[in-house]
Amino acid sequence: MSEEERSLNFIEHIVEDDLKDGYAKKDLRFRFPPEPNGYLHIGHASSICLNFGLGLRYKAPVNLRFDDTNPAKEEREYVEAIKADVEWLGYSWDTECYASDYFEQLYNWAVELIKKGKAYVDSQTSEEIADQKGTPTEAGKESPFRNRSVEENLNLFEAMKNGEFKEGEHVLRAKIDMGSSNMLMRDPIMYRILHKAHHRTNTDWCIYPMYDWTHGESDYIEQVSHSLCTLEFLPHRELYDWFLDQLVDSKKLRPKQREFARRNLSHTVVSKRKLLKLVENGNVSGWDDPRMPTISGLRRRGYTPESIRNFADTIGIAKRENVVDVSLLEFHVREHLNKIAPRVMVVLNPLKVVITNYTEGDEEWLDAENNPEDPSAGSRKVPFSRELYIEKEDFREEANRKFFRLKLGGEVRLKNGYIIKAESCTKDEEGNIVEVQCTYDPKSRSGSGTEESLRKVKGTLHWVSIPHATAAEVRLYDRLFNDPTPDGHKDKDFMEFVNPNSLQKVTGFLEPSLKDAEPGDRFQFQRLGYFNVDSDSSSENMVFNRTVTLRDTWAKLEQKN
Q: Where in this chain does the record put each Glutamyl/glutaminyl-tRNA synthetase class Ib catalytic domain (predicted)?
């Protein structure tokens, strides 16, 4: 769909209306403002695509601004991870900014508010302040320190800045309206004391601004035209505007906050607190575990940035929250990988096949197409020999007419190779089939051009030559939760819905072309799904992750049940 054909979302309509009402296109500027207190997840990806997408649409700059106002939870590691995630998704920012860049300016503005009688130092405990906030239907009570003199407030605030008080001893509050119907307007806290080193300013500061005070003023400093937030910040808009009212210069652009609905993903949680619990409990190996909804986890699993961008574009921007089925994300992953992933043959549950009429010790190398969706991908050679592996589930001694795989007396075609016929099988002491003896038709090779090669059989199996196969660890990932809304149950903890079978490790046997695969390389294991080489891999110990199955088997099972 071209840019002209695509309908505008409501955020784009807001921008278009602003342009009609006098905004100059050169004044447009957007920003993505993550807090560096954790790893980004799929919800952040939608926000990244929205803000940077607007930048691309309107040829406007987009800032990457870190709202780094809480040194107790922030680390440089998270800053670097966030930058890597944004770049991996395919975007670049105009300016890298930090709220900490503005600490001096924010402090000076806070002093101005004190001088205007619009901010004061409160010496109550956090519990006392909370008790006086009131309820949505009952007005709050004024602090006994609300009417301190300007001089006393200035002296106390400077002493707070100089580190003369303990944490929790004082806070700076805006003086607004304790009777407001919006509880956020009831004298919100602007600064608190924290004797903790900051990842950028070290110990230069021991007072730190709160989010609501920092965010709008940072937008103003950067001259961001449209500050886009998720819907939970809608009640904050009144406070956002109140703070700007106190300081904005009419000659400068005034930022506009607007809100869009968070899109929740089924079978997933995105709360940082809950994701951390999964890590700490050992349900996953870390923030980049391929089962995690973090961007680093999705990248490690083999998702492509194109598929995530396409997913974000498909679900669009809305005014109401809803749950998007994760199968839609998986659809976009399959759709893209189908175009770019080379086809290879790997057996995960091996059963030995012996071609009894193939000369022992002989081998031949057969042509195999790399990707029928991409003619430029070319072809490769795969070895054929007397002893092969096929999947155990691809053989039965007896089967009905609907079973089109290998059975005694039946024929199948080996992918890129010959037609074989099962003549007999061998069992172990427990009655398990351990080997199948077959004969092959030497005139039936795929692509040989002979009349016999056109002979049709209904089943085609993937396989690998045993003498040439390489063993590797294959991790079969499933959804981390077996409930569509794991954190949507008031009477149950989300941990109760963790899927105990979300990871299965098996040994796979690979065709030799995969020996040189490197971490991050993506493939379609024919008939099995899409896989990528894990970052844990080495030349001595290859590890593959299942990115996604070939089709949405989970959804079909849910419908069946």
A: 28-338
Which residue matches tokens 């006392």? 128
User: Any idea what the Cα angle at residue 522 is, between residues 517 and 525, rounded to 5°?
Assistant: 95
DSSP letter, residue 293: -
Q: 532 near 545, Cβ under 8 Å?
A: yes
Residues taking part in catalysis = 35, 262, 272
Tokens (6 digits) for 496: 């109760």
Q: Binding residue per annotation — 67? A: yes
**pTM as predicted:** 0.91
C-alpha 302: how far from chain center: 11
Calculate the alpha carbon distances from 165 to 149, 152, 198, 293, 347 in Å. 19, 15, 18, 41, 67
Determine the pLDDT at residue 97. Answer: 97
* Strand-pair category, 406-407 with 411-414: unpaired
Closest CA relative to residue 424, chosen from 451, 395, 446, 402: 395
Alpha-carbon gap, residue 334 to 385, rounded angstroms: 32
Contact 289/297 with Cβ under 8 angstroms? yes
How high does pLDDT run on average in the chain? 94
What structural domains does the chain harbor?
Answer: 10-260 (3.40.50.620), 272-335+472-560 (2.40.240.10), 346-462 (2.40.240.10)
For the segment 352-402, what is each residue's pLDDT rounded down to a tens digit?
Answer: 999 999 999 999 999 999 999 998 999 999 999 999 999 999 999 988 888
Known binding residue 272? Answer is yes
Q: Consult the annotation and say whether 270 binds a ligand.
A: yes
Check residue 68 and report its DSSP letter.
-
Which tokens hold the place of 367? 């042509």
- Which residue carries 């993903």 as its tokens? 265
CA neighbours closer than 13 Å in the CB half-sphere of residue 376: 2
Q: Are strands 95-98 and 470-477 parallel, antiparallel or unpaired?
A: unpaired
Q: Provide the 3-class DSSP secondary structure of residue 211.
A: helix
- Give the containing element (helix H, strand E) for 111: helix 103-115
Q: Which of 230, 281, 261, 262 is nearest to 480 (CA)?
A: 281
Per-residue pLDDT averaged across 438-457, rounded? 75
Yes or no: say if 544 and 474 are a contact pair by the CB < 8 Å rule.
yes
Amino acid at 213: W
Asked if residue 450 belongs to a known ligand binding site, the reply is no
Dist CA 210 CA 227 (whole Å):
17
Interatomic CA distance for residues 421 and 440, integer angstroms: 6
Nearest alpha carbon to residue 200 among 104, 107, 69, 105: 69
What DSSP state is assigned to residue 231? G
Residues 206 and 193: beta-carbon distance below 8 Å: yes
Cα(416)–Cα(167) distance, rounded to whole angstroms? Answer: 71
Predicted confidence (pLDDT) at residue 536 exceeds the cutoff of 80: yes
User: If you ran DSSP here, which 8-state letter would residue 346 be given?
Assistant: E
Identify whether the C-beta of residue 355 lies closer than 8 Å to the C-beta of residue 537. Answer: no
Per the annotation, does 211 bind a ligand? yes
Q: d(Cα 172, Cα 120) in Å, to the nearest integer? A: 6
173 — phi, psi (to 5°)?
-120, 145
Can you list the positions of beta strands (E) in 502-542?
503-510, 522-525, 529-533
